[in-house]
Amino acid sequence: MSGGGAWAAGMIHTVMGAALLLKLFLAPALVVGSTLAGRRWGPALTGTLVALPIVAGPILLISYLDHGPGFAADAASASLRGIAVLGGFALLYAVVCVRLPWPLTLAVTWTACLAAGYLSALVHVGPVVGLVLALATNTACWYALGRLRTGHPPKVRPAWWDLPSRALATGVLVVALTTAAAALGPELTGVLAPFPIATSVVATFALVQAGPAAAITTLHGVLRGLPGFAVFCFVVALTAGHVGVWAYALASTAALVTAYALRPALPQPAAFPKPTALPKPTALPEPDLAPEPGTAPAHPASELIGK
After folding, report:
1. C-alpha to C-alpha distance for 304 and 298, rounded to whole angstroms
2. Phi/psi class of residue 244: alpha, beta or left (left: φ > 0; alpha: ψ in -120 to 50)?
3. Distance (Å, rounded) from C-alpha 10 to C-alpha 18?
4. Which of 115, 132, 143 is nearest to 230 (CA)?
5. In the chain, at which end, N or C, are there fewer CB atoms within 10 A of the end residue's CB?
6. Rounded to 5 degrees, what angle do the CA atoms 105, 210, 265 make?
7. What is the pLDDT of residues 45-68, one digit of tens each?
């Protein structure tokens, strides 16, 4: 093998190794980080963070590394339709989780999500129309889900296996979807890239550990964060064919700026009560040394000593 051929083979091996690392570690690590942030600042922030392209981003990047910029741009454009489906998934999950146990909730919502994703893959629209569709759908679902929220979810102490289980579930789902990308093609890969992998993990754990109120609050945060996801896919769809892998850096920056602008209000730590001011000491009344009328004045001390 010539020197150039050996270099090309080495580069392909390096790229495939990087893709494998992205599949196995990046998305699970981001889910764990979002979970820890939610434990500090509430489940709404967890939902907002997992709505960022922490799973679809690596999937689209791996698609770029494996199949080239044209495939990645088409997949990102199709992902905008998948984001609209993801908004519907969040609303349906919130409605169903109040009435059904979590296994049936997942079965019903995943079936609906897969069916809607397959149908949306049959409709070919450009990235501009896809962006408008994603934003309009998720805004409507966000308002509708806001009416389902029922107070503040209770705080729970998670078990030791909570974070490893979330990471494992996310990693398995990401590997399964990216492995099937070559057979699915760019349209189905893009539509299924926003498939609610991380959303299902965090919402189901919230449902099992703290009840429907926690799951609904998490999903409300998801819908708040989806515009950042949509902006990410839109930027990749427009720029992947022109700037290559740098499109993902541009898209990630735009997504973070959008998510920050739409971030939920974080609970403020309880302030210490201000110390109460001590009362000013009251002045004692001066004694009245004047003799009362009709009494003899007191003898001076010198007179008493003289006696």
Report:
1. 10
2. left
3. 12
4. 132
5. C
6. 100
7. 888 888 888 778 877 887 788 788
